Amino acid sequence: MGSSTPETRADILVAGAGAAGLAAAIALADAGFSVACVGRVDRRANGRTLALFEASLRFLKALGLWQKLRAKSAPIEKIRMIDATGALLSAPEAFFAASEIGLSAFGANVENDVLVETLADHAEACPGLQLVEDLLEDVRYGADLVRATTAAGKVVAAKLVVAADGRASLARTKAGLSARTWSYPQVALTALLSHEKPHRNISTEFHTRSGPCTLVPLRPLEGTPHRSSLVWLMTPEEAERRRGLDDEALADEVARQVDHLLGPMATGGARGFFPMAGMSADKLAGHRIALIGEAAHVFPPLAAQGLNLSLRDCAALVDVLEDARDGGEDIGAVRTLGAYQRARRHDITWRTNGIDLLNRSLLMDVVPVDILRGAGLFAFAMIGPLRRAIMREGVVPHGTLPRLMQKRPRLRAVPP
Ligand SMILES: Cc1cc2nc3c(=O)[nH]c(=O)nc-3n(C[C@H](O)[C@H](O)[C@H](O)COP(=O)(O)OP(=O)(O)OC[C@H]3O[C@@H](n4cnc5c(N)ncnc54)[C@H](O)[C@@H]3O)c2cc1C
């Protein structure tokens, strides 16, 4: 790094401008930190959506983002789970209604590109936040500062890096933080569908032997009143075959797979094919680095937990860093960031293992496993208190929620 290289200074460098990175950058800037967020914003439609639950919506509301997203999303009021494994002892249908836990909806479903674009537009107008649309090429951790260089040669120096640069995180690797990775014999096919019958704000999961096939409600568009998004886990061979189908043939296969639940279907535009993998970082923080989102944890898209978990990372990190700053401590010190590690470890481990178990139980064509899975779903279906506890845990996890996710979020301090 030559001495003539212009250097940008910030309290915090957020690596990555995906949904988690942008959300963290906005929340940290809102909390009064100076933030540089480095990453390329991907505004392309990719045929996939994100279901965000109550705690995430509270976070978005607290940051003034939900007001911009509400009209672009569809509420999820009910969730149906149907055993389509063809197992000898098939599980009963499980039906969850948000009204049972006092909510009008579990959350809302929004197109991935719409969410990212809304976050990016908000970030661009956010005081104290600089969005640098470039990739990081190098990150060096010094005693008091981290210096990162972008592909275009810009240098950013900060007290802390928030690594939100995805599963192959450069910021994590350069910090020497290790991660455990694994894969599943599955690919998730995603697409946006229109259909004849209304979805009635119900998300329906068909549990098949290769994984769930899920229809999630989408908002209506002019001329297309009934729309849903598809997340269908299948074998890599089936994914390859379906990659070759035209829109009409694919829509017919989806309609058959979901027992024509929503009538004839049509699809068009981008489709996504995501090989399924898992990743768990051994530590969530180190010297001048904190990991959030898929830089910290990756698991298959069952029960729509990934970004919801990532937004809890963001909100918890804001609490820890605000407390450290207000207490006059170094926000990048290992001791400070230990509090973040402690706050997040349990939630992340619990979700990663839970999703892994549920996914593997579908893939295993073994009678005792089918019985256990069936018994679990039977218990959810029949035992009201258990069903309500599971619903609450899915949308507003137990324990102390970060301040930005509490029912009455803290009021923003108004600068004098
Ligand atoms: C099919 C599917 C459906 C899903 N559905 C849901 C759902 O309904 N609800 C839910 O909560 N979650 C869902 N998820 C999970 C969710 O998509 C992820 O948790 C979330 O997108 C992760 O966001 P992220 O910002 O951490 O990672 P990413 O979206 O991977 O973003 C990482 C960013 O870092 C950037 N980057 C990488 N390297 C560098 C570098 N060197 N310099 C700068 N930037 C870099 C990348 O370009 C990217 O923009 C789903 C996932 C899949 C695959």
Characterization of this structure:
The protein has 11 helices and 20 strands. Strands 5, 6, 12, 13, 14, 15, 16, 17 and 20 form a 9-stranded mixed β-sheet that branches. Strands 1, 2, 8, 9, 10, 11, 18 and 19 form an 8-stranded mixed β-sheet that branches. With 416 residues, it is of the alpha+beta class. Helix content is 34%, strand content 29%. The C terminus is likely disordered. Helix 1 runs parallel beside helix 8. It has 2 domains: 306 residues, FAD/NAD(P)-binding domain (3-Layer(bba) Sandwich); 91 residues, D-Amino Acid Oxidase, subunit A, domain 2 (D-Amino Acid Oxidase, Chain A, domain 2). Bound molecules: flavin-adenine dinucleotide (FAD).
**Helix proportion of residues, in percent?**
25-40%
Shape: globular
Name the CATH architecture of the largest domain: 3-Layer(bba) Sandwich
CATH class of the largest domain reads Alpha Beta
The oligomeric status of these chains comes to single chain
Specify Rg, calculated over alpha carbons: 22 Å
